[in-house]
Amino acid sequence: MKKFICLICFLFTGLIIPAQCEIELKKAVEEKSDTFQIRLYRRVLNCYYKNDAFKEAINIIAKIKSVTDKAVLKYKDSIYYRDYLSDLATLNYYKGDIQNCSKISEQMLQYDYRKSDSNRIAWSLGNLAITYRLMGNYPKAIYCIQEALKINLARKRKDEITSNYSNLSNVYLDIKDLLKGKYYLLAAIKIREEDKDLDGLYSSYGNMGNYFQHNKQFDSAFIFYNKALALIPKIKISKNKTGLIYNNITALYIKENNIDSALYYSEIAKGILSDKSTPRFITIYYLNKGLIEQKLNKHKMAIMSFNSALLYASKSNDLDNLMDLAFSKSKSFDELNQKDSAFQNLIRGHEFKDSLTNTSKTAEITRYEMQYQFDKEQEILKNEQIKKEIETKNTLERKQLLIYAAIIALVLLFGLVLIILKSNHQKRKDNLLLQQKNDLIETQKKDIIDSINYAKNLQQAILPPIAKIKKEIGECFVYYKPKDIIAGDFYWLYKPQVKKGEREILLFAVADCTGHGVPGALVSVVCSNALDSAVKEFGLTDPGKILDKTREIVLETFSKTGQNLKDGMDISLCSIEKPLEIGNKNQTVKWAGANNSLWYIHKQTIQELTANKQPIGFSEHHKPFTTHQLDLEKGDTLYFSTDGYYDQFGGDKSSPTGKKFMRKRLSQLFLSIKDETLEAQLKMVDDTFCSWKGSLEQIDDVCVAGIRL
Asked: For the chain, which residues make up each domain, given as ranges?
């Protein structure tokens, strides 16, 4: 329903715009002042652009040129001509004549450099970058945007900065550098959302949809396309820009093989299509139409659609779409058993692909070379402009200037040769030094990894084997997933010696030491040894007293360093007393915890015992740990977990960072799996964690254990 409302609003707006254009045109014709008349004509231009009325816009450009010529003569100021060039460049862009647009933009940039107008220089560089990108000259596009960004960042022009970010992201998406493309897209969206720039957000949301479609994340792509469509009733926008969104959604559904939805959105795009549409919009519409027909095995019709698309793609030298069209035609010809045509189009597709690939691969390598070359070109153009102005004064000055320019050029050329030779020599030395450093880093990295892997084997010595745990406890599972090779989390088991006739006791704990990786592993060794000392040397079996004594041992160990270390651990420790009588279903469980809770299932419900809010280690207001006693039954289940599980981010695909799993969700997970075998529970705990985390990084070590009494 939302889609239909947006479309109706757009079509209604399309009826209002022509009337507004006529009103604005009447005002412009009646205006007597040259400068105000030019401004009013520009308002008429913008009105026609929003309605894709390019033929009418050409007539207005001619009127602006006529008034501009008068203004230049009258006020002796060439700024009027520069502004006319800006209008002419914009018209060529909307018409799809990118080469002419680029040439005119270069003339504007020459003028801006000569006038040293930094704001206009940044604006012209940004526009020139768009034309370079559309023509596939990515190094120059990146250079122009970066130069514009330097100016806009220094002057804190947020609207221009977001435009630069958007253009930079488009370039990186074109050369398949998706990470950089996403980075600049998010930067632009953040600023535009803060400023409530709806026109800019429409463009950014569409670009973000394209990013996710490139990355085959179709659900996320559709979300951002819909965000863009939802803005249409709130902003004034041309049919071409709206049509591109519907083209992109059509392409998305084609990739998902959802032909019914693709046909639906293709029909919407067709309703927007007209002789006023830009070549790129028409190209993509016919490309999508052909792909749909290809999916429906209508290959003759598909080839006709691809040919229609080729007419418009060729006009703007759109290499990306030309490549797709060649490969698509090859496939249809092959299905029609026209092997020669299929082969010819396959060759043509690879030629376009090679052109794109070569450009992409060399973009970063040639960046600085292109930057220097472009600077030199601008300097030459700047000097030529100065020479032309001087030539209008007298022939003698022109000849003198040419002589001076030739001398300067020779000196510069000689200096350039010296600089290049010196630069190449230094580059060879730097590359050799860099290679030596890289070799050293690789060797050191290998040594470190080997050491950590060896440390992993040592750390395994403090972890009881799973087979031993199952032998002593019975039904149980331990889910142990370090963030790095070695971990700060560990699990612990001890069976004290008891006299004949006394109840047999088993002590089990899951602990989380400060940090992870190597630091966490070292702390875990200290804390594990402290636990062993508390029960072996002091004969303690009460969980609270064990934790008190363990804290003393840990603090004593750290005090030997002479530094005020605040490392320690959080722990959940229980003692399970087995009944003396065979067949007795009652089980006594004693438990104490430092920051980590205990969950248990009793009578088909889940309960949580909250730990003392203090670590095993330094704390300013330490109190003795509390021992809780539970009277449970055979078949009840105990669950232990470190904070790494419920603090993990993930789950929310619409957010780049996700959200935390949380303790409540963990409790619900334990309750939902209570009736499964412990082996099945282990798999469910792992599947849930991996599914929640998705592609995000694991933030901490994870240890979860379950014991069925």
From this structure: 157-234, 238-372, 402-460, 462-708
Relative orientation angle of helices 279-295 and 259-272, to the nearest 10 degrees: 150
649-650 vs 659-660, strand pairing mode = antiparallel
Question: Which DSSP state fits 595?
Answer: B
Rounded to two decimals, the pTM is: 0.44
Which portions of the chain are predicted below pLDDT 50? 1-16, 360-361, 363-366, 368-369, 372, 376
Backbone angles phi, psi at 616, to 5 degrees: -85, 95
Fold of the domain spanning 462-708: Phosphatase 2c; domain 1 (3.60.40)
For 411-466, how does the pLDDT look when each residue is reduced to its tens digit (9 = 90+)? 888 888 888 888 888 888 888 888 888 878 787 777 667 667 666 776 777 799 99
Q: Do domains 157-234 and 238-372 have the same CATH topology?
A: yes
- In CATH terms, the fold of domain 238-372 is 1.25.40
Relative to beta strand 586-594, strand 598-602 is unpaired
Long-range contact list for 139-145, CB < 8 A, 24+ apart? Answer: 139/362, 139/363, 139/366, 139/367, 139/370, 140/370, 140/374, 141/167, 141/171, 142/168, 142/171, 142/363, 142/367, 143/367, 143/370, 143/371, 143/374, 144/374, 145/171
Contacts of 611 (CB under 8 A, 6+ apart): 570, 572, 592, 593, 594, 595, 596, 597, 598
| Residue-wise pLDDT tens digits, 585-607 | 788 999 999 999 999 999 999 99
CATH class as words, domain 157-234: mainly alpha
The pair of three-digit structure tokens given for residue 471, joined into one six-digit string: 């032998």
Helices (H), strands (E): how many in the chain?
25, 13
